[in-house]
Amino acid sequence: MALLPPRKTTLLAYGVAVAAIVLDQLSKSWILNGLGMSLGQTIEISRIFDLTFTLNTGVSFGMFSGGEARWVLAAFSLIVAGAMIWWAWRAPRRLFAVAVGLIIGGALGNVIDRIFIGAVVDFLDFSGLGFPWIFNIADAAISVGVGLLILDSFLSERSPQPVGSESQTE
Questions:
Q1: What's the rounded Cα separation, in Å, for the pair 71 and 151?
Q2: H or E, element range at 135
Q3: Residue 8 CB burial class (10 angstroms; 0-12, 13-18, ≥19)
Q4: Residues 121/34, Cβ–Cβ less than 8 Å
């Protein structure tokens, strides 16, 4: 079976993934090296937003923290990213491609931290809005990507399929 060239939507997904990784890693480098923040330090920006440097050894919202699951979490994230990379190869729509690209980029951005730092660098603190978790650009990319994937599924179900078009289940 010959491998078909990537679709424009596939390239869009991969481009979004690369952009998410670069933005995530640049922002984390800025926190660690540019600002030289120490663990637990907060820089007050406004009443609703601060920069607070934390290291998350667990997964979302601090679950499984403690560091013992570092390599398991890294491996799981790589498997998820790999599945998404494969899924992006057949991205049928632009919104779907952007969504999958954000998830890939976010997952790989956090994997880079787990491998090289041993924990994920978090610093975006919206506790002034009552949001108790501190997160990073990779986390935001994953969350927005999942939201867009859900939106895409609703929109694609409502769109009429042209006669003779490829089935969405193939």
A1: 32
A2: strand 134-135
A3: exposed
A4: no
